[in-house]
Model the fold of this input.
Amino acid sequence: MPKMKTNKTAAKRFKITGKGRVRRGKAGGNHGLINKSRKRLRRLRNNDMISKTHERKIRRLLPYG
Done:
């Protein structure tokens, strides 16, 4: 049986945690940073988890994650 291919765009955006949950970065932290408050920028630095409903779809894109 051939190897499964990892979806490279998904691999760049998502990481699998030690417990098997899917982690993602938050949107909106790339440009226009002067207009955003310090508090907002601090929150954008932290990673977020994918909701349970989307987790199965993303795991299919990352077969070796």
Notes: The helical segments are 8-13, 38-45, 52-61.
